[in-house]
Structures are given as C-alpha cells and as structure tokens.
Automatic annotation (TrEMBL):
This is cysteine desulfurase. Coiled coil: none annotated. It comes from Halapricum salinum. It is an enzyme of class 2 (transferase). Its EC number is 2.8.1.7. Belongs to the class-V pyridoxal-phosphate-dependent aminotransferase family. NifS/IscS subfamily. One of its GO terms (molecular function) is iron-sulfur cluster binding.
Amino acid sequence: MSSDPPREVYLDHHATTPVDDRVLQEMKPFFTEHYGNPASKANHSYGHRANNRMEQARETVADAIGARAGGEPVAKSIIFTSGATESDNLAIRGLAQHAKKTDIGTHIITSEIEHEAILEPCKILEDKGFEVTYLPVDEYGQVDPEDVAAAIRDETFLISIMAANNEIGTINPIKEIGKIASDYEDLWFHTDAVQAIGAVNIDVQGMGIDLMSISGHKIYGPKGIGALYVNLKTKGKLEPLLVGGGHESGKRSGTPNVPGIVGLGKAIELAVENREERVTHIEMLRDRLWEQLLAEIDNIELNGHPEERLPNNLNVSFPTVNVRELVRMSLTDHGVMAALGSACSSGEDTSHVLEAISDDKDRIEGAVRFGLGKDLTTDDIDYVADTVVEEVNLTESLF
Ligand SMILES: *Cc1c(COP(=O)(O)O)cnc(C)c1O
C-alpha cells in the first residue's frame, strides 16, 4: 500500500464482520465483573451468575433457530464450540465415530462446494475407510435434492449440505433435502448455516435439520465462538472430539467462553430480530452495485444464482482483467476491500466452488467477491462502483 486511501469501504463480510456495539456492550461485564467459571456455579455467586447468563444465551440461540418444544426453546440442543470449524468437525467426526462403533454405516453424502471445514474432515474419514460422495452442483451452485436422494445407500449415515455458500452466495434447498433425509432411519442431516443465519429464515424443526453449525463472527458477533445445534434424539449419538471436564453435557470439554457465548446470543438475537428490514436494505445496495457495474463494464458475469442467493453477496467475474492485481493493488489503494474467491481458501490456486460451476478458466480466475454489510450506505456503494468501473476499464485498456 502506497499511501492511506481517502476512504475505506469493507466488502469482505463473508470472511468476517465487525462486532455490533450492542453485542460488545452485553459482553463487557463478563470479562471484568462476572468472570466466574460456570462450572463453579454450586460454589459461589460469581460462578452461579456466569452459568445463568450462559444458559440464557443457550435458550436465545435455540429460540432463534426454531429449536422449540411446546413453544419453549430446547436449550439442551445447543453445544457451544470455538467456532463453526469446530462445529463442522464435531458433527462429521463425532457421528462418524458413532456410526463406525455401532456398524450403522460408512457412507457420507456432501457436495463439491462445501467449506474446507467440511471437506477436510471428510478427506480424513476417507483415509480411515469411510466413503464420501461429493455431489456436483448446477451452473448456479445449487445441489439438486434428487441427486441427494439418488446417492443414499444402506451404508449412508450422514448428509451434510451447506445452507448457503460463502463464495458465490447460492442458497440450497435445505428443506427439501431435510425431508428426504427424514424418511430414513439412522440417517442424519447436518447443514453448515454459517452464512445463512440472519439472511434467510432458518427453522431447524420445520426444515428437518438434525445438526447445524453456527459461527459468531459472521453475524456481527465475536470471533472464536460458535455452536452446534443437535436435536436431542441425535445428541446421545454424538461422540465428543474434546474430552476432559465433561462440559457441554460431555460433548465439548473446556471452560466455556462466557463473554463469547453472551456475544453469540446477542448477535443471533439481533440477526433474526430485524432480518427482513436488514435484508431489504442490503439487497438494495447489492443490486445498486451490480446495476452500475453491469452498465459500465462490458466484460462482466454474475457467479451464483440470480435469485436464490444471499442478500449481501455479489460474486462477479471480470474475464479480461487480472483480478489479483485489481483486488490487491488497485482497489486496495482506493480503500475498497473485496476478496478473491474465499478468504478461508486463500491458499488454493483456484476456487473449488467456481470450478464446480464452470469450466471457463477466465471466468474462474477472474472472480471477485463483494460481501456487503448491514452498515454500508448508498454513498459507500456508489464510491465502490465508481472505483471498480474506473480500475477495471483502466486495466482492460492496457490489453
Ligand atoms: C467462516 C465459515 C466457517 C468457519 O467458521 P469459523 O467460526 O471461522 O471457524 C465455516 N463454514 C462457512 C460456510 C463459513 O463461511
């Protein structure tokens, strides 16, 4: 970076989000005042207080995702973790251990466009004798429920399909897949809903979801906290990855991250509370950006589904532009922060998600992800559009 840009606009909200001030304010006392260990709840009031607040957050999370019985949140279905990477690992490896031990099965169905936190555990299981089917997706990045149904075998014990993709924003038909899974005994349905929370309505019971991964820092909460939802009939089957003091009803040992848990509770509460209003605002900004880019740039393509996509996602390809230079130099110099592919797979040469939806090398290599946030304004978006148009057309003229 040469000099400080005149203005900074952050457009990488799929990688992480800022902590909402309302979330931070809720968390603060749990660092310095109510710092007791929840496991000491029987010993003194500090422990008791921390534990109470943690259990309240557990109810909030359960309630926000529709985990209810008789109208009341089923708090016991929430296991707090260090983030969605751990939640994904716990769901897949925890059930795989059980399936192996009890001879339930050795086959997993997932998709080609999952996050690495799903794909890597699957690879490890393949080395241990499990079989994994990686379903292809259509040109928009959607999994076809009929493909899921056709891939089920006697040995299948787990289907793991993400609710929404973190690179191209495509939303999957989760309810249809959940319905298919529910017709079978000993077949669990897990979904990584990290990007979908707060963007689409998630109702674990209505959607037939048995397990679901959530992360704090993708929904204006803190980093290093997440949760795995697991319905009570499945919870007994889940083998823990971390053992020790038996926290989280034996499913995840380790002193709970109380401030993080409080923050996750507040973040998910805010995410579902004003969802429609926020979604409308972000969609308006996203469409405004797309329309301006489309009007001013000749060679541009939309990646992902035109309608079934996250409101804050705009993934576009500039096939005639060196986007590495565009994103890392030109846009950065102007304070516009976007991403190449996905931040989590920045080690990859090309995105496995874009490769799953296209054979066109220029399109795959020319992709830029704009991940919008709730606090952006039309002014920010117009500045981004002007900057991108100017820089893209400048780079193109060099050809
Ligand atoms: C960010 C992300 C994760 C990982 O979440 P962490 O809390 O950072 O571990 C998993 N899945 C998806 C889809 C993500 O976007």
